[in-house]
Design goal:
Number of helices of chain B: 3
Helix content of chain B: 25-40%
Distance between the termini of chain A: 34 Å
Number of helices of chain A: 4
Distance between the termini of chain B: 11 Å
Number of strands of chain A: 8
Shape of chain A: globular
Number of strands of chain B: 6
Order of helices and strands of chain B: HEEEEEHEH
Radius of gyration of chain B: 15 Å
Strand order of the largest sheet of chain A: 3-2-1-4-5-6
Oligomer: heterodimer
Strand content of chain B: 15-25%
């Protein structure tokens, strides 16, 4: 975390970036990153509706940002970048609001199933193997979010609904 | 497939006719996130006989035009995809400029946790 904070602070200096975190999985990472970032910055939160089988026709914002981002330096704080679909959507949506710049930091990068490559990921905490993880804000059907650190999830420990799908 | 969603990001001309549930779910996810996609738009010739007739070809399930990426999805278990893997290797040898990714059943099992898919139905 300290290394990420130093790298981001070095790049942004006095630009006062706005950290934008999608709820909920990124919340704990955002809190720690904010404390590790030794330069002035703002914080805002956004929440996207979970995929529901496509019945809504497209991604819905459950909570939008509280402030305009035009001419701000936006840094999206992601928990995991996997297929890249969520970050791709976020970047496309936020870019329409004319930020001065838009980049992303992800705690975990899992590139094996990446479907979109043109992602603005500039900082990566850890590139992880093709496995499932929980804890430190990452949950599976709301379980295990509160674990203090990141744990590998074995297939036989998956919640029932997920195990059914498998 | 009985389900016939109204796709927003589909860029093909004919209505897609998916071979299985996982293809449909994949299309719905791409559509949900607004990633333009086409269904089986191209076939790549992998082999011909002495008279020039096509003996082997590969038609990836999806093409993402903005990513210039082909995506093949398979419901077969990982241990049974040898033939598909061989075709994919041939495709990469013959068409090195073509970007293609194979999504195995295991990949969808992983995605199922994130998107709460019902792969068995």
């Amino acid at each position: 975390m300290a290394e990420l904070g130093i790298a981001i602070a070095a790049d942004y200096g006095r630009l006062e970036p706005l950290l934008v975190a999608p709820l909920k999985s990124s919340a704990i990472f955002l809190a720690d990153l904010s404390r590790a970032l030794g330069v002035p910055h703002g914080i805002d939160l956004i929440e996207l509706a979970a995929y529901n089988g496509g019945r809504d026709g497209g991604v819905r914002l459950l909570k939008d940002l509280d402030q305009p981002i035009a001419n701000r330096h936006v840094l999206v704080v992601e928990d995991v970048v996997d297929t890249g679909l969520t970050l791709h959507f976020l970047a496309r949506t936020l870019t329409l609001r004319n930020p001065a710049s838009l980049c992303a930091v992800t705690l975990l990068d899992r590139p094996y199933r990446r479907l979109v490559d043109d992602l603005p990921v500039r900082y990566v905490g850890f590139t992880v193997p093709d496995e499932l993880f929980a804890g430190y804000g990452l949950g599976m059907e709301e379980r295990w979010r509160a674990l203090p650190d990141i744990r590998y999830v074995a297939a036989d420990a998956l919640p029932a609904a997920a195990a059914d799908a498998a | 497939m009985r389900e016939a969603p109204q796709f927003q990001a589909y860029r093909g001309t004919e209505p897609p006719r998916f071979a299985n549930r996982i293809e449909l779910e994949c299309a719905k996810i791409l559509d949900y996130y607004g990633v333009p996609w086409e269904y089986e738009p191209h076939s790549f010739v992998l082999g011909r006989d002495d008279e020039g007739r096509v003996t082997s070809a590969f038609t990836p399930d999806f093409y993402l035009p903005e990513q210039d990426l082909y995506v093949e999805v398979t419901v077969m278990k990982q241990s049974l995809v040898t033939r598909k893997n061989r075709k994919l290797r041939q495709l990469r040898e013959l068409y090195p400029h073509v970007k293609v990714k194979l999504f195995y059943r295991r990949d969808f099992e992983r995605l199922a946790h994130r998107y709460q898919l019902k792969l068995a139905s």
